[in-house]
């Protein structure tokens, strides 16, 4: 009883935190509990029964295997437990979501005891999480003349597991809770610093609203006042869920406001209702669908127009907004799922049909998108076995095809990778399709949740459709603390066993690689027609089209090799003019956002769209700086259009880096990495021979908007400023406030600089080394007036810098250099005015391990400026995270302030910055 006693001790310690017993996922503990249940006189029997019935995780956990087998014993009469009758055992199996429970149910359904077979088939008719082995077993039984198998397959062909579910309620009463004014990042709902606890759902739930207990109490009080209504969490005058995918954010919202998914599975809630004045961030909205929730674009604040239709601006040049209707906390609304309207009493406020499309209604009915995806797959299997056409049960996939209209780049990729569409039909934006996925990436702070999702959907091996899956170790690279030591090896073993290439080998067979996941995915994407899914909002590669995703969507892609989504509209971005010699490409990235907003009167035309950037002449290493930033532009994804020669160079770089991974011993038994090398070589051959040139849109493709970036207008470095003291709260912490260097007058104090994260490449490290050498030449020595934290994104970059001599330069000026043999075990809380060379990985960008000192003004190359992400506030001063190019960051730490334009130009003279010259070739077909 050692395991049980340890569990009871853990329960007592959790009580002190206001927590219930942690759900059981281990076989050994549950086996002890079952032994106590069987012992009629055992002093722990009653509690053991409750743990067994109400506190075991379903799916393919080792505990689920033990539970399913014990329930089978009860059903067969091999164990008599008065509190668990055979019929109740069947009910328990029906809530276990596949895997071992399906094995047991199929054993019974295809067995010789007719009465039990009928009960088992009744339960099986409600199940959708069946895999190839389960289907093969059913098909073999059917072909052998088994009548039960025939009955079950016929039920699956009719999709009775879906059609017999209750219809979605026509009216859903909701009460509003305004969680914030302006954009709400997922850090508010699931703070990065609490990443370690995400797989412990109840514990992680305490982090909601960044541990703001007063807000949590207000939410509970509101629920108590409105017991029969659903709470709708709102970002007023902003967008909900910006910044990250965060399944944990949706899980937290569901935990506080949603509905229990099962009486026998604790802390897994579904069906949250969320909203934003400017809608929901695309990646976050997908996550809401995973849980069968509703995400509403309120548009309750509207731009005012004059008589000529022009937007009215205030004294500061911002659009004047009028509140069309109030969403203040405590306001009661009604969602009508039939009329697809939002009402206040009898008054119609808003058409919300985009939140209640036929596919989304199916997600709501099925209690999540997974059940729909697996249901369609199961129905197709059954119909194939029966030799019949698939009956139209689910909403038809929307297929938009416009005669005579060309295709954008993303439309071409979707058409190539789509499955289940009308043969020969060319699809345009607005179509809703299933697409096969080539590359899937899981990151380490959400990976434990992904592994849980895989267990709960009863998946045991990566889909053969996927070229490669990769599990990173970058988000926990900075501090190898006790939490990381406990979580990460367990995660790596699970993912390695599942079939992914893993940053760490479970048995330490190769050097742990903490490279930033986006950089790795950017390298292993070796075809410009690929589809990539990654567990992070910044999964935006410079080859193919990549979509950031929540941990659940990543799990679904790993298990099925597919994703389902609409083909998004695209915004075309082209360039003209010439970059100034002293500018860095990062400034072009910021200027793109600024010029776009100016061209469209402050409207962000990128939001929810694909940015098709005609980058032409930049390799994928450098172009990634643009595509990665598109997450902050609120785009759904981005695509780089390259010249043939540039794409070949990018593919050669990727191929050689993949070979380095192979040489390190990182390939898996299926040799996925070798397959990528072969694929890259084949793609290079296609381009060189003219068989298939680089992906380009058609000349007559239709775009939502077109943006032309004038490089001549970019006369000085550009900085994204969180504007933390803006009187209008809704305008703080947005990425739309882009300021030129001269705005600061060379006087604004900088407390810390950060060069790192996915936004930098090898060239940035070389720029840093050259600036240090120049300063020593000019001044005799280098002195930092503010700390400079440097985290190279990959070990490959470090190795190349060492071979070429630049790493030696960086080490010369560093006051701290990472040591893989003795990684930091404690997060740094104080910084000296020196250079810190940190381990490759996310470092300060993530904000989940180390942060700047509270109240600091930070100048960083990363993408995160949200409140509390990189730096917390103090009572005296708000923390600021300003974002800029590498040379601006470095010079700011040398000076201890933002430099003047003249100081900057002098400092970068003679340095090879990241240059960009627009292509002079026609990048269309």
List the keywords.
925 residues, alpha/beta, 6-stranded parallel beta sheet
Question: How are the secondary structure elements laid out?
Answer:
Elements: H1 2-15, H2 27-38, H3 45-54, H4 62-76, H5 86-94, H6 100-109, H7 114-124, H8 132-143, H9 147-157, H10 160-163, E1 171-181, E2 184-185, H11 186-189, H12 201-205, H13 213-225, E3 230-236, E4 240-242, H14 247-257, E5 259-260, E6 269-270, E7 273-276, H15 282-290, E8 294-297, E9 301-303, E10 321-323, E11 332-336, E12 341-344, E13 347-351, H16 358-366, H17 369-386, H18 409-417, E14 418-419, E15 432-436, E16 439-442, H19 444-456, E17 468-471, H20 482-498, E18 501-502, H21 517-524, E19 531-534, E20 545-548, H22 551-560, E21 562-566, E22 570-576, H23 585-599, E23 610-616, H24 620-629, E24 637-642, H25 644-663, H26 672-689, E25 705-710, E26 718-720, E27 738-740, E28 752-756, H27 762-779, E29 788-791, H28 795-804, H29 806-813, E30 814-817, E31 835-837, E32 857-860, E33 880-883, H30 886-895, H31 901-907
Parallel strand pairs: 1-3, 2-4, 3-7, 7-8, 16-17, 16-19, 17-18, 19-20, 22-23, 22-25, 23-24, 28-29, 28-32, 29-31, 30-31, 32-33
Antiparallel strand pairs: 1-11, 5-6, 9-10, 11-12, 12-13, 14-15, 15-21, 26-27
Largest sheet: 7 strands, mixed
The termini sit apart by 71 Å
Determine the number of helices (DSSP H or I, runs of at least 4 residues): 31
State the share of residues found in helices, binned by percent: 25-40%
> Oligomer, anyone?
single chain
Structural class label: alpha/beta
- CA gyration radius, whole angstroms: 28 Å
Q: Would you tell me the overall average pLDDT?
A: 92
User: Strands of the largest sheet, in order across it?
Assistant: 8-7-3-1-11-12-13
DSSP strand tally? 33
- Low-pLDDT parts are none
| Net shape | globular
Q: Tell me the fraction of residues in β-strands, as a range.
A: 15-25%
């Amino acid at each position: 009883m050692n395991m049980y006693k340890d569990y009871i001790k853990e329960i007592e310690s959790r009580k002190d935190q206001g927590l219930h017993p942690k759900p059981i996922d281990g076989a050994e503990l549950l086996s002890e509990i079952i032994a106590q249940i069987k012992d009629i006189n055992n002093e722990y029997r009653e509690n053991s029964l409750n743990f067994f019935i109400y506190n075991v995780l379903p799916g393919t956990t080792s505990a689920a295997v033990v539970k399913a087998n014990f329930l089978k014993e009860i059903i067969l009469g091999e164990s008599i437990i008065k509190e668990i009758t055979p019929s109740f055992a069947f009910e328990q199996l029906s809530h276990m979501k596949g895997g071992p429970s399906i094995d047991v149910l199929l054993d019974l359904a295809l067995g010789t005891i007719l009465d039990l077979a009928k009960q088992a088939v009744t339960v099986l008719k409600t199940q959708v999480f069946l895999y190839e082995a389960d289907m093969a077993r059913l098909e073999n039984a059917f072909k052998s003349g088994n009548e039960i198998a025939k009955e079950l397959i016929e039920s699956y062909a009719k999709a009775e597991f879906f059609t017999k579910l209750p219809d979605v309620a026509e009216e859903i009463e909701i009460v509003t809770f305004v969680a914030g004014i302006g954009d709400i990042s997922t850090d508010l709902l699931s703070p990065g610093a609490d990443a370690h606890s995400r797989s412990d759902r109840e514990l992680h739930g305490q982090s909601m609203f960044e541990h703001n207990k007063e807000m949590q109490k207000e939410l509970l009080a509101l629920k108590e006042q409105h017991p029969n209504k659903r709470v709708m969490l709102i970002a007023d005058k902003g967008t909900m869920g910006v910044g990250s995918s965060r399944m944990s954010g949706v899980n937290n919202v569901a935990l506080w406001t949603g509905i229990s998914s099962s009486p026998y599975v604790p802390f897994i809630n579904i069906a949250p209702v969320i909203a934003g004045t400017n809608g929901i961030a695309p990646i976050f909205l997908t996550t809401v669908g995973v849980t069968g929730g509703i995400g509403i674009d309120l548009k309750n604040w509207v731009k005012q127009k004059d008589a000529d239709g022009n937007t009215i601006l205030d004294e500061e040049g911002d659009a004047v907004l009028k509140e069309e209707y109030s969403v203040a906390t405590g306001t009661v609304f009604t969602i009508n799922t039939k009329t697809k309207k939002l009402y206040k009493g009898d008054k119609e406020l808003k058409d919300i049909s985009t939140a209640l499309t036929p596919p989304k209604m199916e997600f709501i009915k099925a209690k999540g998108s997974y059940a729909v995806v697996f249901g369609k797959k199961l129905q197709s299997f059954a119909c194939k076995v029966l030799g019949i056409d698939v009956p139209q049960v689910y909403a038809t996939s929307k297929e938009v095809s416009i005669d005579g209209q060309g295709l954008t780049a993303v439309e071409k990729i979707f058409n190539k990778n789509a499955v289940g569409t009308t043969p020969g039909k060319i699809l345009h934006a607005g179509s809703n399709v299933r697409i096969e996925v080539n590359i899937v990436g899981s990151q380490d702070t959400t990976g434990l949740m992904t592994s849980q999702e895989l267990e709960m959907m009863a998946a045991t091996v990566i889909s053969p459709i996927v070229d490669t899956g990769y599990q990173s170790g970058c988000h926990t690279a900075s501090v190898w603390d006790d939490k990381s030591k406990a979580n990460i090896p367990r995660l790596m073993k699970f993912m390695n066993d599942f079939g992914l290439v893993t940053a760490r080998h479970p048995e330490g067979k190769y050097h742990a690689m903490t490279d930033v996941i986006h950089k790795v995915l950017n390298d292993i994407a070796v075809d410009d027609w690929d589809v990539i899914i990654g567990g992070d909002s910044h999964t935006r590669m410079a080859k193919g089209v990549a979509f950031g995703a929540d941990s659940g969507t990543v799990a679904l892609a790993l298990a099925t090799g597919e994703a389902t989504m609409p083909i998004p509209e695209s915004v075309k971005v082209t360039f003209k003019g010439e970059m100034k010699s002293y500018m860095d490409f990062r400034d072009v990235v910021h200027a793109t956002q600024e010029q776009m907003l100016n061209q469209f009167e402050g409207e962000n035309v990128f939001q929810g769209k694909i940015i098709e950037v005609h980058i032409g002449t930049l390799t994928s290493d450098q172009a990634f700086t643009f595509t990665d930033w598109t997450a902050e532009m609120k785009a759904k994804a981005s695509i780089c259009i390259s010249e043939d020669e540039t794409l070949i160079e990018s593919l050669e770089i990727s191929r050689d880096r993949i070979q380095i991974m192979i040489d390190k011993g990182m390939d898996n038994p299926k040799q996925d990495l070798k397959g990528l090398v072969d694929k890259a070589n084949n793609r290079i051959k296609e381009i060189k021979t003219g068989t298939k040139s680089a992906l380009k849109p058609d000349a007559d493709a239709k775009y939502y908007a077109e943006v032309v970036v004038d490089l001549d207008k970019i006369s000085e470095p550009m900085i994204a400023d969180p504007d933390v003291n803006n009187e209008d709260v809704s305008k703080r912490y947005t990425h739309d406030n882009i300021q030129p260097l001269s705005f600061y007058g060379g006087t604004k104090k900088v407390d810390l600089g950060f060069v790192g994260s996915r936004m930098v490449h090898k060239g940035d490290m070389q720029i840093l080394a050259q600036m240090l050498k120049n300063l020593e030449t000019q001044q005799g020595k280098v002195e930092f007036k503010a700390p400079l934290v440097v985290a190279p994104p990959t070990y490959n970059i470090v190795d190349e810098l060492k071979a070429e001599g630049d790493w030696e330069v960086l080490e010369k000026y560093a006051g701290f250099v990472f040591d893989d043999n003795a990684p930091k075990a404690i997060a740094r809380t104080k910084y000296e005015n020196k250079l810190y060379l940190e381990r490759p990985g996310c470092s300060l960008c993530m904000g989940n391990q180390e942060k700047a000192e509270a109240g600091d003004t930070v100048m960083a190359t990363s993408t995160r400026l949200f409140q509390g992400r990189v730096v917390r506030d103090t009572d005296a001063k708000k923390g600021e995270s300003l974002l800029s190019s590498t040379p601006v960051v470095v010079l700011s730490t040398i000076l201890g302030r933002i430099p003047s334009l003249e100081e900057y130009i002098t400092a970068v003279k003679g340095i090879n910055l990241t240059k960009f010259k627009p292509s002079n070739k026609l990048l269309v077909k």
